[in-house]
Amino acid sequence: MSSDMEAHKRTAARRAADMVKSGMVVGLGTGSTATYMIERLGERVAEGLHIVGIPTSEDSARKAKKAGIPLTDFSAHRQLDIAIDGADEVQRGPLHLIKGLGGALLREKIVAQASKIFVVIVDGSKPVDHLGERAPVPVEVIPFGWECTAERLSACGAKGVKPRTDRDGNLFVSDNGNMILDCTFGPIEDPEDLARQIDAIVGVVEHGMFLNMASEVLVATEQGVERWEP
Ligand SMILES: O=C(CO)[C@H](O)[C@H](O)COP(=O)(O)O
Question: Where is the active site (predicted)?
Fold first, then answer.
């Protein structure tokens, strides 16, 4: 990871964190870009910003607590004012996303769906013409019968379906106790159709295509921060 890329992630993250106002319920994304956003929100809380956060992963919950951000959950709030999160790919135009290479796609999608505004923060390596160009589509599945679920995902056109593993080669376990299958499709011509096919497979909990969900995307590059709307 180049230091430029890190600097761009940080710039986009801080720009989004500065959109947050006192009184808001804020969805806290997961990943390296979202971590910069959590750190910036922590600074703002220390300066007097009053917010509560709903984290999208156990990892982000830990980081938010460390940063001093008070946390809440859906038992207290059914709707969030804003959610801010990174992405693995962003398609300009509809602002379709692939998310979940960090393993948190299910909670991320629940939080994004419950938010009035969903702001996506990326560096210049994330925009693509078609979803699937560079990233696999992560699919969270229940462990029971995953081999069978994997075959059905192949039948949807995935060229490769790989169970995600951790650094030690053990099967990755999500915060929800599920597995992730990384499905390589290559450029996806019709993401809505693919999403329908994947949603219909028994055993699939959720996939990492976030279609028509982003309210805006902040793309930070050498040239500054571009703001995209659908
Ligand atoms: O979806 C995600 C985690 O599940 C992340 O937002 C995505 O992987 C981007 O991560 P990073 O900001 O580290 O590039």
Answer: 108
